[in-house]
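[Discussion] Sanity-checking designs against the backbone

I'm trying to build intuition for which residues belong where. Below is a structure token string of 169 positions. I'd appreciate it if someone posts a full sequence so I can compare it with mine line by line.
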């Protein structure tokens, strides 16, 4: 049975290892495995524990199977926007974990009045993720061409997608 819960500092090392494994597959993440540290994950967990953002993990049978977070943008004029990061851990894709995490994050954002918009970047080659985002109402807002280097001189586009939660007036 899958459960969602808030990330804790005790999760940082395991989340980092899972994301390092994910980063080994070209097109999934923009980071290389050696650019990810447990300290970075711990700092983000701490930062988002103050209710300005949200960091969720999915567990199945006591094992972490995915994680995602919404991080507020840093300036007051864009503080109503949160940036999505989502990672389904290797060996656990295609089982609905990403949808469950994203649905939980959208529910938090919807119930959190300052938040009006969720933004994300996704590699154009990641068709499964693009399909998930579209199915939950995200729309393409732009494309950054040849933004991510997948391999030696092989580049792909990054697609900018967003979900508007409330009208901004």
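Best answer:
Here's mine. Compare freely.
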């Amino acid at each position: 049975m899958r459960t969602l819960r808030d990330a804790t500092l005790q999760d940082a090392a395991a989340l980092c290892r899972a994301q390092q494994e994910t980063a080994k597959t070209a097109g999934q993440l923009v980071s290389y495995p050696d650019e990810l540290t447990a300290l970075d994950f711990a700092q983000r967990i701490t930062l988002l524990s103050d209710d300005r953002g949200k960091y969720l993990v999915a567990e199945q049978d006591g094992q972490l199977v995915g994680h995602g977070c919404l991080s507020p943008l840093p300036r007051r004029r864009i503080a109503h926007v949160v940036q999505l990061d989502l990672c389904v851990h290797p060996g656990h894709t295609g089982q609905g974990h990403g949808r469950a995490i994203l649905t939980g994050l959208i529910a938090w954002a919807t119930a959190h009045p300052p938040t009006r918009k969720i933004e994300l970047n996704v590699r154009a080659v990641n068709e499964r993720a693009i399909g998930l985002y579209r199915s939950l109402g995200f729309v393409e807002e732009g494309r950054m061409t040849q933004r991510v280097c997948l391999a030696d001189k092989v580049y792909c586009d990054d697609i900018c997608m967003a979900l508007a939660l409330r009208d901004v007036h």
